[in-house]
Amino acid sequence: MKGSKLVSRALALFAGLAAAAASGAAHAIAWYFQTPASKMAQDIDTLHQVIMWIIVVIFVGVFGFMFYACYAHRKSIGHKAAQFHENTTVELLWTVIPALILIVIAWPVTKVVIAQKDTSAPDLTIKVTGYQWKWGYDYLRGEGEGISF
User: Alpha carbon 115 to chain centroid distance?
Assistant: First the structure.
């Protein structure tokens, strides 16, 4: 009886969290990133959202399976502990699957990072000089050209 109450409470908690996550857009939350103003910022924001949802799916899948396995195979209902030492299949699976996930995540991230490094056509050029107790800024090209402080 206790086990079924625990499962029903866990399902209710999960349903509540899922409803809260689905109830509003991410940009409506006050502590979220500010609205992106450039194409690069939009790419970073989109990448953040996609990677975050991939992480959420992995988290729910792994912990759901873990909690199910702990509940369904507990000692109190007579299960004996299985030994997976030197099981090549299990060791390959828990090495290859995370590596594939990292490759899937790294592909779009690498594209955005490389795009960030491209400075071939800047809108603004600023020369920053460090002095002993302050910084000096000279706007060399673009909006504010000729301004120094």
Answer: 19
Measured CA to CA, the distance from residue 105 to residue 11 in angstroms comes to 29
Q: Which residue has the tokens 């209710």?
A: 12
Summarised one tens digit per residue, pLDDT across range 24-52 is 555 556 777 888 888 888 999 999 999 99
Both structure tokens of 48: 């953040």
Residue 58: its H or E element: helix 39-72
Instruction: Look at residue 142 and give its three-state secondary structure.
Output: coil
pLDDT per position as a tens digit, 88-110: 888 899 899 999 999 999 999 99
85 Ramachandran zone, left/alpha/beta (phi>0; psi -120 to 50): beta
Instruction: Output phi, psi for 129, to 5 deg.
Output: -120, 130
Q: Are 144 and 124 in contact (CB under 8 A)?
A: yes
